[in-house]
Write a structure and sequence with these properties.
The complex is a heterodimer of chains A (895) and B (425). Chain A contains 26 helices and 34 strands. In chain A, strand 11 and strand 12 form a beta hairpin. In chain A, the strands form 9 sheets. A 6-stranded mixed barrel of chain A has the order 29-33-30-32-31-34. In chain A, strands 2-1-5-3-4 form a 5-stranded mixed sheet, sandwiched between helices. Chain A has 4 domains: 95 residues, Ubiquitin-like (UB roll), CATH 3.10.20.740; 284 residues, Rossmann fold, CATH 3.40.50; 189 residues, 3-Layer(aba) Sandwich (Dimethylsulfoxide Reductase, domain 2), CATH 3.40.228; 96 residues, Barwin-like endoglucanases (Beta Barrel), CATH 2.40.40.20. In chain A, helix 8 crosses helix 23, helix 14 packs across helix 15 and helix 16 packs across helix 17. Chain A is of the alpha/beta class and 895 residues long. Chain B starts with 18 loop residues before the first helix and ends in a 6-residue tail after the last helix. Chain B contains 17 helices and 8 strands. In chain B, helix 7 links the parallel strand 2 and strand 3. Chain B has a 4-stranded parallel sheet with strand order 3-2-1-4, sandwiched between helices. In chain B, strands 6-5-8-7 form a 4-stranded mixed sheet, with helices on one face. In chain B, helix 13 packs antiparallel against helix 16, helix 14 packs antiparallel against helix 15 and helix 15 packs across helix 16. Chain B is an alpha/beta fold and 425 residues long. Classes of the chains: A alpha/beta (895), B alpha/beta (425).
């Protein structure tokens, strides 16, 4: 710790910080623009000027930029110095020379950092009488609006987009006061993390285009802490609603997971909640009581009911179904191709050779091996973390030269393109290959063999891979050397290839590192899973969908499907046969192929209208909360199942009145979920006897917003399931991290108010951890090496081995109902190696028939020279590929 | 007649000496001497002792700058020497004389400087418009390579150096040494924050020295004749001669190599031949556009770094622009501020936004639309764009002529406002 003096008072600060960070951490208000906690300092905007004094006798001092000055021991500064204040106000005056004076009608107004900083500096009167500069705006695609006239040239957008996220198509053009931030031409921003520009931009140049279509002021939005449901990483989000419509997603800072940034699927996928395909009532239309009695009667009579769970439904909903139908008739709802590798992941979450990595752990890893994952498409936020990991080496180089890590351009200048090692071993080239130090292409079996070989090269005790080619053996030695030489090595693998051997191979690498590394606690493994609760469902250890099909063949009286479109999981004929086997009840929120076949549909609340717990790919249980109450007739899935259970006599009337009771039941029955109640404060949690409001204290229109229906102000909906209130009333201070949704502090109306909620700038939110790591992701000692080394891949004549190719925009079911995401989804192609194409006599763009046993699909061909011969890649989860259980061998026939 | 080492080979017809003539008149002897008989530390020491200060405008002691470069047995490699030949300061044309008139002198200076810091690569970053200089430099580089003054194992000494000519894309800011380095790297020519200084982390993050043309041209003479001789050339404690220049309504605008510390009066009256008939001297910008005006009372000051500083201005490039009584000072300053506003790189707020605002106010004043509040704001802007407040020295330099014009010619500004027109139109 260092002692610095601010306006003559001593304070303890971290000497590795710059003065701006240090002062903000201490709670001082210093205005800033170009500095960003995740991106460091560049000294461009000159807004954070303070006065520095040489010693206590220096009365003159000189103005310095707080962001560019280390918080070195003994530093003396004044924030209140009149000259510094004048200069800070002048910076705003300069910025305001050209900034539109239209805050009241500007769509950033009320959540604008520039607005806040303007007020903070006290600049209030306009002294210029000259005309303002104007720009031409660009169409940047379905997610982002562009309004360059608002730009204050802080350079954050390009620094984020290019330097942090690796994008190329946004840049700074022109010079002097004509500097322009945009693309060379109009067009969709290509980077998968473009949405963060909305929060990175300190004013309204880049705004959320999806919000603009149903615009509502920040303070009129009702929000709740939530978890992104569009992949298994479990980023924390703050969805916001008004008039029963979900309006936008804002990032909810979580130190270990998403930090300041979300991917575009997570930020813009929410519009499915407002989809016209939402199911709003029981179908066919029957009174609720009657339908419940009806379903209950089947169960009550002791007949055979099959329950199909879902990796996109909460633990509570899955558990409720399991309770209703009985553990032995509860099935996971995914095919063996997926459930086997997911089960392997779940096994590691319980017993791991080294600590399981959080996203943040990956960011600070100094050597990363990605085994079999196209991360940008299977766990996007993790890919962004890997991009940061390769910068570790430059940080070390800078530290040796006494250049602080926050001195962003100095670090980049010094290090140039020096990168920490990153090894990508995948079936085809991925977006991260451009920053990789080693790339390897192979069929999943060969990737697994490489993994086994790396493990053996690290630790000779690990099983040897027989018959490995010389090139592969040398590569394995090289990679082993890289990982062994690292201070914080990490291995990333998971279910992307749908190959269980690959996961065992990855675990072997992690174990070999843990056994040989001088500090095993520094070794990390990171996992990926297919969906938001794949890990949670796998930990429930249900049998898979194949077993459910089998069970139905031996006779069933009813099938209850929970939030699961089985036609995405399995071939049409199989699912048709299954659903025909018995009366089918489907609980879901959106119409799909499965609901179309259901005899009864029970309308379920989406994540925005229900509470529940999800387990992410690092084994962290996290709670999401209702952003808005479900519409009349819609219930959370677990409540439907509770109602049926009571009617069937499986539960008594008093049971499971709130979510906490369900959680308690889960913890009591399944020890692996022992910690899930700690994921967030219980519904009984109060601060000063008060609940936490979902609405900002400035929320307007409460007494009037329903007046067109009735002039009597309705009572706010009750929420027995959480400590949150559907109200602007309640405890007004910062709540504990697990309940914090919006960030606001006096004078801080933009997202930057998160500063005021962190234990230190850029550090975890105050008020304890958000989420609860099941088993705490700790290392287990008594793990042994797997020796199930697969045979090398051999191509087959006339056939290709089809592996799934996931797409950030397209492969996930729900987000595809958001128009913006659908617009970003590309046409699906079957990708093949040109040599295979030649052998098969097919050419690019040609339509071919792809035949898997009895299933056949028609697809266009695209050449992908990075694919190993004999291996083809099929975009997963798109309508064209739904129901094909890949990986599998297939025959290609030209047309 | 005082010695004029820098310009001794410059011929009246402007044709530069070829390598044979250059060698015949003692050229490349310094390279032979230094590479064969001197350690790099000895070269640095000699330059230190010479009191040579950088001729680009800032006047930083050259030898001291070189001594910051990491040496030792395992220094970061490669190291770079960059010649800043991006002469774009308005009113300044001294480097051009050297570049066009004696390119081998620069190359020899660069070899010596590179040897001193053990750089293996040199760049000449040349202003794009200096096409004639470019051709002559390229030719001279070829000649030097052919004679093994450049290349591998120079003159059998084991020292390797290659020098490349790079033509700037043409921005004033490229003259700022760190912006120049970014431009060389193919990036936007925005300056870099210091520290770290280029000596530690410069071109491509490696130790780099950036020196002005005139500075480098002095080095061969220092090595040949010694530091004491060099100090003796000067009339002040800054060593050597200096290229002084004058433009404006004087009888003989031009460039002269004179002892450092020659008085302003001597330069203007004896060498520039005094004012043209019918023109009265009102003031002078002594060192390129980004320096403060000096007026009548300053004519007897010595034109060296410290003396000009004491008079409230800067020696800068030593090439002066003379203001006469038939030229509107507001118009002159407006012209300069237009240049600076346009040449701002757009990186930091005060420069990017403040300079265009200044230009707009000056335009209004010059066109008779000015107000007294404009004058007040202009005065404030001069302080707010001062050293340390902006990211680099462009804006502080840009307000120097303005702040001194407001001081010395205030009544002219006020008359523009009160009369509602420019009195000179």
């Amino acid at each position: 710790m260092a002692t610095i003096y601010i306006d003559n008072k001593p304070y303890e600060v971290n000497p590795d910080d710059n003065l701006l960070q240090a002062c903000l951490s201490l709670g001082f208000n210093i205005p800033y623009f170009c500095w960003h906690p995740a991106m460091g300092s560049v000294g461009a905007c000159r807004q954070c000027a303070v006065k520095q004094f040489k010693d206590e006798n220096d009365t003159k001092g000189k103005i310095i930029m707080a962001c560019m000055t280390p918080a070195a021991d003994g530093t003396r500064i004044s924030i209140d110095d009149p000259e510094a204040k004048t200069f800070r106000a002048s910076v705003i005056e300069w910025l305001m020379l050209n900034h539109p004076h239209d805050c009241p009608v500007c769509d950033e107004g009320g959540e604008c950092h520039l607005q806040d900083m303007t007020v903070m500096t006290g600049h209030a009167y306009r002294r210029t009488r000259f005309r303002k500069r104007t720009y031409r705006n660009q169409d940047l695609g379905p997610f982002i609006n562009h309004e360059m006239n608002r730009c204050i040239q802080c350079y954050r957008c390009v620094r984020y987009y290019r330097d942090y996220a690796g994008g190329r198509d946004l840049n700074v053009f022109s010079v002097h006061d004509h500097v322009y931030f945009g693309r060379a031409h109009d067009g969709t921003l290509e980077n998968e993390f473009s949405g963060n520009l909305v929060e990175v931009c300190p004013t309204g140049v880049f705004t959320d285009k999806t919000l603009a279509r149903h615009y509502t002021r920040k303070w009129d939005l009702q929000d709740a802490p939530s978890i992104c449901i569009h992949c298994g990483v479990g980023c924390n989000t703050s969805p916001r609603a008004r008039y029963g419509m979900l309006r936008r997603i804002v990032n909810r800072f979580h130190f270990d997971i998403n930090g300041y940034f979300l991917c575009d699927r997570g930020r813009f996928g929410y519009e499915f909640v407002n989809s016209e395909r939402r199911i709003g009532s029981i179908r066919p239309s029957v009174p609720q009581r009657q339908v419940i009695e009806d379903i209950a009667s089947v169960i009550k009579n002791g007949r055979k009911v099959i329950g199909i769970g879902s990796p996109r439904a909460s633990l509570e909903a899955n558990f409720a179904l399991r309770m209703l139908v009985g553990a032995d008739r509860f099935f996971s709802g995914v095919r063996a191709e997926e459930s086997l590798p997911v089960a392997k992941v779940a096994e590691l979450l319980r017993r791991s050779p080294c600590p399981i990595a959080s996203v943040h752990d990956i960011e600070v890893s100094d050597a990363v091996l990605v085994l079999g994952e196209d991360l940008i498409n299977t766990a996007p936020r993790l890919a962004l973390a890997v991009r940061q990991s390769v910068r570790r080496k430059s940080m070390e180089t800078a530290a040796r030269m006494n250049i602080p890590a926050w001195h962003d351009y100095a670090v980049r200048t010094l290090a140039q393109d020096e990168r920490s090692p990153l090894v990508i071993a995948t079936p085809y080239e991925t977006a991260l290959d451009e920053i990789a130090s080693e790339s390897y292409r192979g069929a999943p079996e060969d990737l697994a063999r490489l993994g086994y070989a790396i493990a053996c090269a690290i630790d000779p005790q690990a099983p040897r891979v027989e018959g490995l080619g010389r090139e592969e053996a040398e590569l394995a030695e090289r990679i082993a050397g890289i990982l062994k030489g690292a201070n914080r090595p990490a291995v990333i693998f998971g279910t992307g290839c749908r190959n269980a051997a690959l996961i065992e191979a990855g675990a072997n690498v992690a174990l070999a590192l843990a056994r040989t590394h001088p500090d095993p606690e520094r070794v990390r493994l990171a996992l990926t899973v297919p969906e938001c609760n794949s890990a949670g469902l796998a930990l429930m250890e249900a049998k898979d969908l194949d077993a459910a099909f089998e069970a139905a063949r031996s006779g069933a009286d009813a099938i209850i499907v929970l939030e699961n479109d089985l036609y995405r999981r399995s071939a049409v004929q199989q699912v048709d046969e299954f659903l025909r086997a018995a009366r089918t009840v489907v609980l879901d929120s959106l119409e799909n192929e499965t609901t179309a076949k259901a005899e009864t549909i029970l309308p379920a609340g989406t994540f925005a209208e229900s509470e529940g717990t999800l387990v992410n790919s690092e084994g962290r249980a996290q709670r999401y909360f209702k952003v808005m109450p479900p519409r009349q007739g819609v219930l959370e899935s677990w409540r439907w199942l509770r109602e049926i259970a009571i009617a069937a006599g499986r539960l008594n009337e008093d049971s499971w009145r709130s979510l906490d009771a369900v959680i308690a039941a889960i913890e009591a029955e399944l020890p692996q979920f022992q910690e899930i109640s700690k994921a967030a404060p219980a519904a009984s949690f109060r601060i000063a006897g008060q609940k936490i409001p979902r609405q900002l204290h400035r929320y307007s229109g409460r007494t009037a917003m329903m007046a067109d229906i009735t002039v009597h102000e309705p009572a706010p909906p009750r929420d027995p399931d959480s400590a949150l209130a559907f109200s602007m009333e309640g405890y007004q201070g910062p709540p504990p991290a697990g309940l914090a949704s919006f960030f606001w502090a006096p004078g801080w109306n933009s997202y930057q108010a998160v500063n005021k909620y962190q234990s230190e700038i850029g550090g975890p939110l105050r008020g304890g951890p958000a989420g609860s790591r099941l088993g705490e992701g700790k290392r287990t000692d008594d793990i042994s090496y797997s020796s199930r080394i697969p045979e090398p891949f051999r191509s087959r004549d006339g056939k290709v081995f089809v592996v799934p190719a996931f797409r950030i925009f397209g492969s996930e079911e729900l987000s595809m109902h958001a128009p913006g995401i659908a617009a970003r989804a590309e046409k699906p192609f079957l990708e093949v190696n040109p040599s295979d194409a030649e052998k098969l006599g097919i050419s690019a763009e040609q339509e071919v028939a792809l035949t898997f046993g009895a299933v056949s699909r028609s697809l266009a061909i695209r050449m992908n020279p990075s694919l190993p011969p004999g291996v083809a890649a099929l975009p997963a989860g798109l309508p064209e590929s739904a129901g094909i259980p890949v990986p599998a061998w297939a025959r290609i026939t030209g047309r | 007649m005082a010695e004029t080492p820098l310009t001794q080979r410059i011929r009246p017809d402007g044709e530069p000496p070829g390598i044979a003539e250059y060698e015949r008149t003692g050229g490349y002897q310094a390279v032979r001497k230094a590479l064969r008989d001197m350690t790099s530390a000895a070269v640095i020491e000699e330059v230190k002792q010479s009191n040579l200060r950088g001729r680009g405008g800032a006047g930083f002691p050259t030898g001291m700058k070189w001594s910051f470069v990491p040496m030792g047995p395992e220094p970061p490699q490669p190291k770079y020497l960059v010649c800043n030949a991006d002469e774009m300061e308005p009113g300044t044309f001294k480097d051009r004389v050297l570049l066009e008139g004696d390119p081998h002198e620069l190359i020899e200076g660069m070899i010596l400087a590179s040897y001193a810091i053990q750089a293996s690569v040199g760049y000449i970053f040349l202003r794009d418009e200096y096409r004639l200089a470019a051709r002559r430099i390229e030719k001279a580089l070829d000649e030097a390579r052919a004679k093994n003054y450049l290349g591998v194992n120079i003159l059998g000494t084991g020292y390797n150096l290659e020098i490349y000519l790079h033509l700037s894309a043409g921005r004033y800011i490229c003259g700022e040494e760190t912006a120049l380095l970014n431009a060389l790297e193919g990036k936007r020519a925005n300056p870099r924050a210091k520290p770290p200084f280029p000596q530690i982390s410069g071109l491509w993050g490696k130790p780099t020295i950036v020196q002005n043309v005139e500075t480098l041209c002095n080095i061969p003479h220092i090595i040949n004749n010694g530091a004491a001789w060099f100090r003796g050339l000067s009339r002040s404690k800054d060593g050597g001669t200096k290229l002084y220049g004058a433009s404006g309504n004087v009888n003989r605008p031009g460039i002269w190599e004179l002892p450092m510390g020659t008085s302003l009066r001597e330069i203007l009256e004896e060498h520039a031949g005094g004012m043209l008939d019918g023109y009265r001297f009102r003031g002078v910008i002594p060192g390129g556009a980004s320096t403060d005006f000096l007026v009548e009372e300053h004519l007897d000051i010595a034109m060296d770094f410290d003396s000009v500083q004491r008079a409230g201005s800067r020696l800068g490039t030593g090439t002066m622009i003379v203001l006469d009584d038939r030229t509107c000072p507001v118009g002159m300053v407006l012209n300069l501020e237009h240049f600076f506003a346009q040449e701002s790189c757009g990186w930091c707020t005060p420069c990017r936004e403040g300079l265009p605002w200044i230009e707009k106010m000056l335009t209004a004043i010059e066109e008779g639309r000015g107000t007294l509040q404009d004058l007040e704001i202009l005065q404030q802007q001069c302080l707010l764009l001062g050293p340390g407040l902006t990211f680099c020295a462009l804006a502080p330099g840009a307000v120097e002529p303005l702040q001194s014009a407001l001081k010395y010619f205030r009544s002219d500004f006020e008359r523009h406002v009160s009369d509602g027109r420019c009195p000179w139109r």
